[in-house]
């Protein structure tokens, strides 16, 4: 749409020059009444032409300045969205670290239970051995193993008593072996418990560091958002001033005002046609997504690529919400403490850039993390010049990936750009474009 606006403004300048330089003398020759106008001198005609020419040049300069300011405002909005995408990464890292800490703590608790059980086993084995020794000491010498043999009355009785002595010795050995096994099990359990406890402490420290990093990232995003919001306000104020100058210049000539009105009508027609085209594409894509929902998913290939593109296209017009978007569709945004909050993203159901990719690729059974930087390394990386429909394109700011879009072919991509906007199709931008695209299918 931006291309339409710039080319349309260029047309305005050209038509102004043609209409005013070539057709002004005819308009001025029309009398305000049936009486003929006075015949102007050659000098008056030349001065009129010079004044109109200078006005047209001023209009052209102001129109170009307006286009530059619009481009700067778009760039600032994209930078703001990029800062919040970096905060997304910190939130994902923090959640992963916290989950790992919880798992390590549970493991340590299980190890403590195992240690307690091993201690109980030692106590039981020790009691069994003590009981056996006590019984042996309580028996008289004649009742002990040696006494049993001495009291034999016949060879058969001696054999029976020898077997009984072996049984007693075996029981003593079993009691000693049980005690030793219990001690070994206790030592192993203690070792595992110490390792689990150390892992739990390390994971907890890692989770704390991740939380600190997330808090810092959110604070930086908020600070950057405030600074860039001030820049954006300044740009918008400058644009308003230029617009006022342009309006004043256009108001100085009735022909120019008429030309402006015709241009605005043309622009409205173009916008209506573009909106109708987007509605048709969104409805067609949504219909294909609904039809595919009941059929088994095909193997990776052109059909899967089309399914991914259709799911993204089916969300055309859905509002931007920072932190929004799941594999099931748009979701409630989250707070960022800055510009996203000013736009009320945390009250909106929608997508941010990486959230839109999560939803699109879920249609092909592919799960993606909610951060564009991690999505960049989720698949095969190919030179961006070799991109094809279904590839993800990435944009960086100072070497850090801050935005992701889906390439749909013919130099076009679909994206959820920034707070206050909506999911849209636009031409592929080259400013900040990463040298590689990511191919998942």
From TrEMBL:
Residues 302-441 form the NlpC/P60 domain. Residues 282-304 have a biased composition (Low complexity). It comes from the Bacteria. Pfam families: NLPC_P60. The keyword Protease applies. Residues 31-40 have a biased composition (Pro residues). SUPFAM superfamilies: Cysteine proteinases, Outer membrane efflux proteins (OEP). Belongs to the peptidase C40 family. This is C40 family peptidase. It comes from Pseudonocardia acidicola. The lineage of its organism: Bacteria, Bacillati, Actinomycetota, Actinomycetes, Pseudonocardiales.
